[in-house]
Write a structure and sequence with these properties.
One of its GO terms (molecular function) is 5-(carboxyamino)imidazole ribonucleotide mutase activity. The chain is α/β, with parallel strands linked by helices. It is built from 7 helices and 5 strands, in the order βαβαβαβαβααα.
Length: about 170
């Protein structure tokens, strides 16, 4: 079991590290690299077409601006691909979001919100959880913990009121 994380530029690492950190917390191995669909297409092709041989079962691909990387990756494999649109300066990441989410028929890319590499990792874990019961159990525990945290905050808010809550 392994997840592949690929990004178009090292400037995307500030966002994509959230995917790596989430996978680490769940104890799921991954590999992470930089390969540009535009500047190093041969490297992208080689990395993707050998991914299954290296044990990769799900790919998370992050890119900004024109964001062709997730679609190119999906065109080269039958593995599930999750695209992470990276927020850019000019269009606040909408350009990347539209580039990733508007794939042509036959080349699906699951897409998360702008800069949501953590959610991409959680989706990858849910996909892996179909095959690996230990991953599924860790996800159940994770969601239960989130539920408990929300209930604790709700109880505090209801007990002390919103003004005091905001002061804390």
């Amino acid at each position: 079991m392994k997840v592949g994380i690929i990004m178009g530029s090292d400037s995307d690492l500030e966002v994509m590290k959230d995917a790596a950190e989430t996978l680490e917390k769940f104890g799921v191995p991954f590999e992470i690299t930089v390969a540009s669909a535009h500047r190093t297409p041969e490297r992208v092709h080689q990395w993707v077409t050998t991914a299954e041989q290296r044990g990769i079962e799900v790919i998370i691909a992050g890119a900004g601006m024109a964001a062709h990387l997730p679609g190119v990756v999906a065109s080269l494999t039958t593995l599930p691909v999750i695209g992470v649109p990276i927020k850019g300066k000019a269009l606040e990441g909408l350009d990347a979001l539209f580039s990733i989410v508007q794939m042509p028929p036959g080349i699906p890319v699951a897409t998360v919100a702008i800069n949501s590499a953590k959610n991409a990792a959680l989706l990858a874990l849910q996909i892996l959880g179909i095959k690996y019961p230990e991953v599924k159990e860790k996800l159940k525990a994770y969601k239960e913990k989130m539920k408990e945290e929300v209930l604790k905050k709700a109880a505090k808010l209801e007990a002390i009121g919103y003004k005091k809550y905001l002061e804390d």
